[in-house]
Design a protein that fits this description.
Number of domains: 1
Radius of gyration: 20 Å
Helix content: 25-40%
Number of helices: 9
Strand content: 25-35%
C-alpha cells in the first residue's frame, strides 16, 4: 500500500505516469555527487567517558561521521555528541559533523533546534553554489551537568540504557511513518515503494534531514527533541546510525551492553558495531557510547523520586513514553 494517509495519492501517481529511472537519474546527471573513499580503515576512539566505533561494512565507501565536543569544568561537565549518516556522498555528513555541535550557542532545547536549522541553511547555501545533492541524518546529545538534550532528524537513533530498561530518545523520521507521510503529501510530495522501501519522491527513505536541497520542501531540518534529568539508574547513552539497528533491536543493543559491562568502553562500542556488521548489516555502522555512571557527567548526590522508581521498574519502555520530567518537540 503506497499510503494510508492520502487515499487519492495513488490516482495522482498513476496520472503522472512517472518513469522512475528518468526521475531518479535526471538530477544526478546535472549535479555533483561527492565520491566516497574506498580506502577507509575502521576506527575506534575513546575519550574520558565516551567512545566511538565507525565501521564501513558492505558499503563501497564510508558516509557516516561522528563528532564529540567535551568541555570539562569544576563540578560541571559540558559535552556534546553527534552521529551523522550521509546519503548521496559524505559531504553533508562531514559538514554537519564540523558545524552542528559548534553551532549550539545556548545549551537548551531552543539552542539545539536553532543549531539544526542554522547548519541546514549553511549547508544548503553551499550545496546550491556547488550543485551538491548530498544530505545527512543527524542525532545529537548534549549533556550539561545532570541535564541531557537529545535531538535528531532522520533515522539515526539515541538510546538511553537505565538499569535493565531502555528508552528511545529519538524519533525515526521515515517515509513509512503515517504522520510523516501526511506532512510530505500536504507539502505536495508523494511516498511510494521503490525496491521494497517506502521513499519520498521515490528516492529517499528518510523524511527529515540536513541538506538535500533539491527536496527541501519535503525533507525538513526540524528536529525531534527530548530532554530530561539524569538519575543514578542511568548507565549508558547510545548514539548510532541506522546501520546498527538494521540488525539489532533496541532491546538487543541493551542486552549486548549489559552483558559485557566488564569491557573497556572502546571495546564495548566496537562490539556493538562489529555485531551489526557480523550479522550482515548492509549499511555503514557508527556507534558513540557514553558512560553515564561516571562522576564526570552527573552529581553523585542525585536522588530518585517515586516516579523515577516506578518508571525504571518497567522492563521495556515503549517508543517515546515520557520518563520523569521530560519535554518533547517536533
Amino acid at each position: 500500500m503506497f499510503s494510508q494517509v492520502c487515499p487519492s495519492s495513488w490516482k495522482r501517481k498513476k496520472n503522472l505516469q512517472l518513469d522512475l529511472m528518468k526521475v531518479n537519474a535526471k538530477p544526478i546527471s546535472k549535479a555533483k555527487v561527492q565520491p566516497v573513499s574506498d580506502d577507509w580503515r575502521d576506527v575506534t576512539t575513546r575519550g574520558p567517558f565516551y567512545a566511538t566505533a565507525l565501521r564501513k561494512g558492505k558499503r563501497p565507501g564510508m558516509e557516516d561521521c561522528a563528532k564529540t565536543l567535551y568541555m570539562p569544568g569544576p563540578g560541571h561537565t559540558l559535552a556534546a555528541f553527534g552521529v551523522f549518516d550521509g546519503h548521496r556522498g559524505a559531504t553533508a555528513a562531514q559538514f554537519a559533523a564540523e558545524h552542528l555541535l559548534a553551532a549550539i550557542q545556548v545549551y537548551d532545547e531552543v539552542g539545539v533546534i536553532q543549531a539544526f536549522l542554522e547548519t541546514d541553511k549553511r549547508f544548503c547555501d553551499f550545496a546550491c553554489r556547488t550543485h551538491c545533492l548530498a544530505g545527512t541524518t543527524a542525532v545529537v546529545a548534549v549533556i550539561s551537568g545532570d541535564r541531557v538534550i537529545a535531538a535528531n532528524v532522520g533515522d539515526s537513533r539515541a538510546l538511553l540504557i537505565s538499569d535493565n530498561t531502555y528508552t528511545q530518545l529519538s524519533y525515526d523520521h521515515v517515509a513509512g511513518d503515517p504522520s510523516e507521510q501526511q506532512r510530505v503529501e500536504s507539502a505536495g510530495g508523494y511516498i511510494m515503494h521503490v525496491s521494497g522501501v517506502l521513499r519520498v519522491q521515490g528516492t529517499l527513505a528518510v523524511t527529515r534531514g540536513l541538506g538535500t536541497p533539491a527536496y527541501k520542501q519535503f525533507i525538513i531540518p526540524d528536529p525531534h527533541v527530548y530532554s530530561f534529568r539524569l538519575c543514578p539508574l542511568d548507565q549508558f547513552l547510545v548514539l548510532a546510525s541506522d546501520g546498527l539497528y538494521m540488525r539489532l533491536t533496541n532491546a538487543e543493543v541493551r542486552d549486548v551492553i549489559l552483558g559485557h559491562m566488564e569491557l573497556p568502553l572502546d571495546q564495548l562500542a566496537a562490539l556493538l558495531a562489529d555485531t551489526a556488521i557480523g550479522r550482515g548489516s548492509p549499511d555503514n555502522v557508527t556507534v558513540t557510547l557514553v558512560d553515564l555512571r561516571t562522576s564526570l557527567t552527573r552529581s553523585k548526590e542525585l536522588l530518585l523520586d517515586e516516579d523515577d522508581l516506578m518508571a525504571d521498574e518497567v522492563t521495556e519502555m515503549p517508543l517515546l513514553t515520557p520518563r520523569r520530567s521530560c519535554k518533547f518537540t517536533f
